[in-house]
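In keeping with the milestone schedule agreed at the kick-off meeting, the structural modelling team has produced records for the first pair of proteins. Each record is given below as a sequence line and a C-alpha cell line. The laboratory manager (R.T.) confirmed that both were archived under the project's standard naming scheme.
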Amino acid sequence: MRLAVAGGTGVVGKFVVEAGQAAGHDVVALSRGTGVDVRTGDGLAEALREVAVIIDTTNAGSTSRDKATAFFTEVTRNLHTVGAGVGVAHLVVLSIVGLERVPGYGYYEAKLAHEKAALAGPLPTTIVRATQFHEFPAQILRRTRHGPFAVMPRSRVQPVAARSVAQVLLEAAVSEAPAPGPEQEPGQERVPEREYGACIEVAGPERADLVSMARAVVRHRGERVWVIPVRVPGRAGRAMRSGGQLPTLGVRVVGPSFSEWIEGADLDAVV
C-alpha cells in the first residue's frame, strides 16, 4: 500500500515512516524537507499520486490558540481537498487524549478544531488520540532550561512511547476506513459528529507526573539540572494537575513503560 505521512520527519511521523517501510509499504514523507508544504499545498498533489491513505502527524509549532488553529485547519483542508481530488481513500489524524477535559488551554482548543475539520472533510477519517509521549519531558527541558535550572509544569499523565503510537497509526491506516456520514443536501453544512468517523485512544501502561519524569531524564543524562515544578494557572492548570489528561475506560494500552523506555532511549535525538 502507498501511504503518505504528513509531518513525516517529526517526533511521531518519522516512526510511522519507519514502521510502514518495515512492513513493506511504499511510504512518502510529506514535509518541506521533501519538497512538500502541506500548509500552502505546494507539491502536495504530485506527492499524493497513487496514495491510498494519508497519516497526519503534523504539529503547529505554536501553543497559541489562534496560530495553531489556523495551521491545523489549513493543513487539514489541503489534505482533504487535494487528497480527494487524486483518489486518496482514508485520512488518519493524530490527536491528544483529554482535549475536552482541559478547558482554556489554547493548544487543546486548536486540536479540537483540528479534529472537527478532519471529520468534516470528504475523506473518511480516523482520529487516533494519544496521551503525552515519553519524549515530552525532554522536549520541555530543552525549551525551559536556563543554565542549571529548568521548569516543568505539574501534570498527571499516563505517557506513551511515540514509536508505539506510530504503530497504532499505521494499523489504523491499513485497516478498513470508517463509513462516511449521511448524505447532505446541496449547500448544507456537514455536521462533523464523531460517530461518522472512528476514534481510537492510546496510552502507556503507567501513570506518572511530568516533574518526576523530567528528573529521571536529568539523572539518565548525568546532568546537574534542578527541575523546578510550576503550576500552570487557571482552569487548564487545575485540570492538568487533577488528571484531565489521563485516559478513560476503553483506551488501548501499549508499552513500554517510561522506566523501560528511558533505559534504551537516545535522549539527545529527541526533537
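The second protein of the pair:
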Amino acid sequence: MVSHLRDSPRQSRAVDACEMRAVYVGPIGLPGTLAIPSGARALIVFAHGSGSSRLSPRNRAVADALNGQTFATLLFDLLTPEEEADRANVFDIPLLAGRLIDAVHWIDREPLIGGIPVGLFGASTGAAAALTAAAQLGDRVGAIVSRGGRPDMAGDALDRIRTPTLLIVGGIDSDVIELNRQAFARLKGPKALEIVPGASHLFPEPGALEAVIGHAARWFRQNLGSGPPDRTRAANPPA
C-alpha cells in the first residue's frame, strides 16, 4: 500500500527532477531508498554483495547514473541487522533471492510504481541472488546485470533463466572471469559477457566503474527502454 512509502528526512524533496523516498520493503520492512526520476521508464532493483548494504558507494554511483537516464532505482538491505550478525546468511543465496522476490511483489502493490518494467542489478553474491530470483519471477523481470558477480552460486537456476542477462567482469579478476564464463554457457536467454580491461573485482581503477555504468545502462535501455523486453537477440560469448 502507498502508506509503505515515506519521505526521507534528508531527501524529502525532488532533486534534479528525481524524487527520493525512504521505504520499508517486503513483509519484514527492510529499509531502502527509492529514487523515481520524472518519466521513469523502468525500475532497477539492486542486490548488493557480501558485507555490503543499501549504502554501497559503488551501487549508489551506478544508481545515480541510471536515475540520470530516467531509470527508477531501489536499493534496500537484504538482511536485518540480526541476520547480518550470522555470516552464513550473507552467502545464503535462496534467502537473499527470496528477499528480492518479496521486493518485486512489494513494487507491484505500490500505486506509484506498480506494473513498471523491472530489472535487477546484482554485485558479487547479489548477482547469484538476482539470477535465482529471476528464475522464479519469469517474465516479470525484463533484464539482469551482474557486476563482478558470482553467477555460479545460482546453481541450477542458471539452466532456467530466459531473462536477458549481462555479466560484467574486471579484466584482471581472473578467477571470477572463469566462473562467469562457466555460468554464461548455461544461460538460455539473450546474454552478453563484458570484460572491462584493467579492472579488478571492485572496479576501483580510473574509468572502470564508468565502464560498468555504460554497459549496464545500454543493456537496460535495450531490454527495458520501451515496450516488452527483446528476447530474440543473443550475443555470442567472447573469445
